[in-house]
Q: What sequence folds into this?
């Protein structure tokens, strides 16, 4: 099992940053990049082997609304990869950087990524993702994290957006009750990656821990690829209040059977350290 990091924004909030705006953790790419670097290092030191960049909610449209020029946005997207690379080099060891391509719904900052179906065509979604993907690929990540994808149309668009860039990717959906957030069967969702040599793993992220095991069984069977899981803590996101409610249910057992595993929102470095310990114990170390 390869160990991913946890919730980057959660760690940044724990370090005292208020991320309650439309740019979320991407705002610190401009305001305090050193804190992003430190958060990546913290996860690496907890045992993570993969850092997911702070570009999930970064877009030309989102930064433009905050007053940034296109060249500044491009610089900040590149910076997201550079910070993760610097953290990797600082900690050392065999580790990787995954450039996050979050869903279109993330830039709306209203929870749309947990619903999907934005009223955009596959072509429009492809154009949106392609612009970011080209910049991120040029910064030299090891792979793309096509993550928190709520429906099949957006997955198809993301795959088209990374075509020809020479960067492999994983594809992970956010799911609920055995379907995508848009309500499609998971067999249909994972089938888009079958036979696609660019996709090195498929699975789920930012979902309830209880939804992981059945989704991974379908992913492995349908796509025939390694499977990835990094659920959230199981707490509930209140989009109106912009806060999490309930208690954490993240446990190492939730991601058992995954080839790549970690955590998403509300999963802290201590959780990743426990997951590392569980992995090593299972391997007899």
A:
């Amino acid at each position: 099992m390869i160990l991913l990091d946890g919730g980057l924004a959660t760690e940044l909030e724990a370090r005292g940053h208020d991320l309650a705006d439309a740019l979320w953790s991407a705002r610190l790419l401009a305001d305090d990049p050193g804190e992003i670097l430190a958060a990546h290092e913290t996860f690496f030191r907890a045992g993570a082997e993969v850092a997911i960049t702070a570009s999930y909610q970064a877009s030309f449209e989102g930064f433009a609304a905050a007053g940034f020029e296109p060249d500044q946005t491009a610089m900040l997207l590149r910076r997201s990869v550079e910070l993760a690379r610097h953290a990797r080099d600082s900690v050392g060891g065999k580790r990787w950087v995954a450039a996050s391509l979050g869903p279109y719904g993330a830039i709306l900052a209203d929870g749309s990524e947990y619903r999907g179906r934005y009223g955009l065509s596959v072509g429009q979604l492809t154009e949106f993702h392609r612009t970011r993907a080209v910049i991120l690929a040029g910064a030299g990540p090891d792979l793309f994290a096509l993550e928190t994808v709520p429906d099949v149309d957006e997955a198809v668009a993301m795959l088209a957006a990374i075509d020809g860039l020479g960067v492999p990717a994983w594809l992970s959906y956010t799911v609920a009750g055995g379907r995508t957030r848009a309500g499609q069967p998971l067999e249909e969702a994972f089938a888009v990656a079958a036979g696609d040599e660019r996709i090195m793993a498929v699975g789920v992220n930012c979902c309830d821990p209880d939804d992981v095991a059945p989704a991974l069984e379908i992913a492995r069977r349908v796509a025939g690829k390694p499977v990835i899981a990094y659920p959230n803590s199981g707490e509930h996101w209140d989009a109106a209040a912009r806060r999490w409610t309930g208690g954490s249910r993240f446990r190492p057992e939730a991601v058992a059977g995954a080839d790549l595993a970690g955590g998403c929102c509300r999963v802290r470095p201590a959780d990743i350290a426990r997951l590392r310990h569980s992995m090593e114990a299972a391997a007899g170390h």
About this structure: Residues 2-284 form a domain with the TIM Barrel fold (CATH 3.20.20.330). The chain has one domain: 2-284. The first strand starts at residue 2 and ends at 3. The chain has a mean pLDDT of 95.
